[in-house]
Design brief:
- There is one protein chain.
- This protein has about 240 residues and is of the alpha/beta class.
- It has two domains: about 150 residues, Rossmann fold; about 80 residues.
- About 40% of the residues lie in helices and about 15% in strands.
- It is built from nine helices and eight strands.
- The strands form two sheets. A six-stranded parallel beta sheet has the order 4-3-2-5-6-7, with helices on both faces. It has a two-stranded parallel ribbon with strand order 1-8.
- α1 packs across α5, α5 packs parallel to α7 and α8 packs across α9.
């Protein structure tokens, strides 16, 4: 039997929820890794890149004289540890944005994702994303997919820069305020129980997405409703 929820907003995680974790950790990371240094060197006057490099030097306690090679070593270390650090996400997002634009990258969603997104959007639900990946990277990833350009389905994008950490209640309160929605009218889908806990603490409805073969596929979702695919739940407008 399919569960039914009522909401104004559907907010979605990406990695492990809409796409396989390998889409990020293998496809996207492998694409960005060798391009970080060249991107920095090829955009010496880009204020976004300059700000990111300055922040990397600060966080890694590198001297001002540290060159691109040293900066890239830090970035590769952060990537190996899967650390969600803002300047790394900024540079990755710029590289991925370009990769999608020129056709090097195409996002592959789980088979149930695009039909659910289109159905919710057609029903009048508002869709948003909350992912650790940069907003630029998110938008790019929806622009070129195996299911076509899905960017028009989404109204808002949130990341750890404009909303805050994904495992902290305050981030979800900030998002609800930005959406202009009562917390109880927002439902969040994620594969990470700790993220769902934070959203629930902020008054959101929550649904755990337990995908077979994914890192959190066998996780304990506690009191959060759990689905194996979006076919297992319905969401209708309030």
């Amino acid at each position: 039997m399919t569960a039914e929820l009522s909401a104004t907003w559907v907010v979605l995680d990406i990695e492990g929820t809409l796409t396989a974790t390998s889409q990020v950790h293998v496809v996207l990371y492998d694409y960005a890794r060798p391009r970080l240094g060249p991107w920095i060197d090829e955009h010496p006057d880009d204020p976004v890149v300059l700000d990111a490099v300055a922040e990397i030097r600060k966080l890694a306690e590198l001297p001002e004289s540290a060159g691109t090679d040293e900066i890239v070593r830090v970035l590769h270390g952060w990537m190996a540890a899967d650390q969600k650090i803002a300047p790394l996400k900024t540079l990755q997002g710029l590289i991925w944005q370009r990769g999608y634009a020129v056709g090097d990258l195409v996002t592959e969603f789980f088979g149930d994702v695009a039909p659910a997104l289109r159905s919710w959007h057609a029903a009048g639900l508002n869709l948003a994303v909350f992912s650790s990946g940069s907003v630029a990277g998110q938008i790019a990833s929806f622009s070129r997919t195996t299911d076509g350009d899905l960017t028009g389905l989404f109204t808002h994008h949130f990341d750890t820069v404009n909303a805050g950490p994904k495992r902290e209640e305050r981030s979800y309160r900030a998002i609800a305020a930005a959406l202009g929605a009562p917390s109880g009218e927002v439902v969040f889908f994620s594969d990470v129980p700790a993220e769902l806990d934070a959203a629930a603490a902020a008054g959101w409805q929550t649904v755990g997405v337990a995908r077979d073969g994914e890192p959190y596929g066998d996780a304990d979702f506690g009191a959060h409703p759990k689905i194996g695919s979006f076919d297992g739940i319905g969401v209708r407008p309030v």
